Amino acid sequence: MKALMYGAGNIGRGFIGQLFFQNGYDTTFVDVNPEIIDALNEKGEYPLQIVSNESCSNLMIKNVSGILGTDSGAVEQAIADCDVLCTAVGVNILPRIVPNLVQGIKKRSESGRELNIIICENKIDADVYLRQLIKENLPQPYHAYIDQKVGLIESSVGRMVPNVPQELKNENKLTVVAEPFCILPVNKDAWIGQPPCIDGILFESNFEYYIQSKLFLHNMGHCLTAYMGKLNGYTYIYEAIGNESIRDIVKYAMYSVAEALSLEHNRPYSEIKRYANDLIVRFGNKHLGDTIERVGRDIKRKLGINDRLLGAVRLCEKYNIDSTYIKIGVASALLFGEQYPIEDLKLEAKL
Q1: Last residue of a domain, one of 172, 205, 238
Q2: Contact indicator for 223, 309 with CB cutoff of 8 Å
Q3: Alpha helix (H) ranges present in 23-83?
Q4: Which of 17, 164, 201, 345 is the most exposed place for a label (fewest CB within 10 A)?
Q5: 121 and 15: one domain?
C-alpha cells in the first residue's frame, strides 16, 4: 500500500507518518526542503520521540522516501499511483501545491481510479477551499472526475508536535518529537468509496463538531496560553499553563466554548468539558518543550473572523454565553509581538 504525504514537517513526519507506518503503508513525503528529502531517501527511516511528563520512548518510522516538490513529474506520477494522499503544508502554502495536485489528478483520471485526499490543515471548510483552488486550475473536462471520484477529506489534527530542539537535529536532522496522543478524526461522509481500516484514523460522520472543537477549543486554548504566557515573561507553554492565574483564564475560556459546542452539536457538556480538562493537562507536557513563540505566531491569521479566537467568541455569543475570558486572549494577542502594528490587524468583529 502506498501513502503520499504532502509536507514533511512536524505534522507530516511527527503524526501522519507514524499512522501510515504502523498500518503497513510505504510512505513517500513531498517537500521543498532538499536536505530533508535527501535524508529520507538515504536512510529510508527516521526517529520519532514520544514524550510526556511520565515517560519518553523512541520509535523508528520505516519504509519512507521523499520527492522534492519542484520535481513536478515525479510528484504527478506519485499522485497517480498512491492509495491515499494527505496534505500538511499549512493553509498559506496550499495554493502553492495546487499545480502539482492538478497535474496528478489529470494523470490519475486516465485510469478512472478514485483519489482521497486527507487535508490536515487548521481551516474551517478546508475541503471547500481546496476544491475551489483545484477547479480554478483544472480544465473543465476534468471537473466531473473531481466531483465524482476525488474525495477531499477534512481532518482534526489534535496531536501536538513542537519544533525539534537543535541538539536533536544535530544528531539526526530527521528526528521529530511528539506527545503520546495519536488519533486523527476524519470526515467519513466525504470519503469516496469504502474507507480503509487504518488504526488511529477515526472515520466520523457529522464532522463539523470535530472541526469546531479543534479550532475553537484546542487551538483557542493553546494560543490563549501562549499570549498570556508572553505577557508574563514565559518561554514555554508548560510554564504558562503552570501559572494558576493563566490556567484559570484558559480553563474558563475553554469551558465557555465547551458549553457553546454542546448546544451547537447536541453533545453532552460533561464530555466536552472533560476533553477540555485533558487538553489543559496536555498543554503542561514539559518534555514537549513547546515554545510560546511557536504557538502564538501568525497573529494576523489567528485573529481572523472565523479563526480560533474570534470564531470562538462568535460561537459563544450565538448562544448568549459569556466570552470574556476568550476576549482576554484577543487583547493579549494584540500585545504578543511587534510583527504587526495593531492598526494593521483590522479586526473584523466588535468585541
Answers
A1: 205
A2: yes
A3: 34-43, 72-81
A4: 345
A5: yes
